[in-house]
Write a structure and sequence with these properties.
By secondary structure, the protein is of the alpha/beta class. The protein has eight helices and twelve strands. The strands form three sheets. The protein has an eight-stranded mixed beta sheet with strand order 5-4-3-2-1-9-10-11. It has a two-stranded antiparallel ribbon with strand order 6-12. The two termini are 24 Å apart.
């Protein structure tokens, strides 16, 4: 049986609610955390755009994103290294469901108070370990962590060293574990809905790339300051990826990704009738 990741993107399997993707926000680059499971060096080589996402541009883009698309604060860097991150979260909360994946680096006690009453779909706090994410802890950082644990309902925590089986090679860009090579017709179990690869990443200059594995920025879909959200899925890049996914061996980013899976099995388990559905 195909194992679907337990994410809110796939909640429709359990509830029937139609969530049609996730849109992740990269608030600032480069990321200072330098986690060994994140190919920041590759990203720094190729990204030459604005380093900081402005609150003004975030608001412009947010208006274009359908409300049944989850906004994810994660992307290619720690969200809170942008001093306006809490304000962006507050703004997104007016219209969208949200996920937050953070190390709390850059977060302040004031930020915690600003977001503590927001009902996140997922609030994942990545804590330092001695192997993949090392950090010299300060008193201020420890106070923020303590405040998060006491103030944020349903907060989840993880250390990457404790979840090594979940770590990925970022489409083969990292070599700490063997990469994969998928053949046949495949798709993405993290984000695929009605022929759309729709767990996309926005950079600080509002360029959008296909997914969280594209640290080389080889699959640009467009800039949301210039185009509409739906135009991302009629772009040459998206059409090329979709076409390659329907072949047996044509090379494209998903072939080397741990999140890829057999297309037919994925579609069957995603759209199979649920108990109580009318026949």
């Amino acid at each position: 049986m195909l194992k679907l990741l337990k994410t809110s993107v796939h909640r429709e399997l359990r509830t029937g609610e139609k969530l049609t993707g996730m849109f992740e926000i990269t608030t600032k680059l480069p990321c200072p955390n330098n986690c060994s499971v994140c190919p920041q060096a590759k990203l720094s080589e190729v990204y030459k755009g604005e380093k900081v996402l402005s609150l003004e541009n975030f608001k412009k883009v947010l208006k274009k994103i359908p409300t049944n698309v989850i906004i994810g604060f994660a992307g290619f860097s720690e969200p809170f290294i942008n001093r306006n991150c809490a304000e962006m979260i507050i703004e997104a909360n007016k219209s969208h469901k949200m996920n937050l994946y953070t190390t709390a680096v850059g977060m302040t006690l004031e930020d915690v108070q600003k977001i503590k009453d927001i009902k996140f779909e997922t609030f994942m706090l990545h804590l330092p370990d001695d192997k993949y994410f090392t950090l010299k802890k300060t008193e201020a950082y420890e106070k923020v962590i303590s405040s998060l644990k006491s103030e944020i309902p349903h907060i989840q925590t993880m250390r990457m060293a404790d979840k090594e089986n979940m770590l990925v090679t970022r489409g083969g860009l990292l070599s700490f574990k063997p990469s994969v090579c998928m053949t046949g017709q495949i798709t993405c179990k993290m984000g695929f809905y009605k022929n759309k690869f729709n767990r996309n990443i926005m950079l600080p200059n509002c360029d959008v790339v296909i997914c969280c594995m594209d640290y080389g920025l080889e699959y640009p879909m467009g800039n949301l300051l210039e185009i509409e959200y739906e135009s991302l899925f009629t772009s040459d890049t998206h059409n090329k990826v979709l076409k390659a996914s329907l072949t047996k061996e044509e090379p494209f980013i998903c072939r080397g990704c741990e999140y890829s899976c057999d297309r037919d099995k994925f579609l069957y388990y995603r759209y199979m009738p649920r108990a109580g559905d009318r026949k």
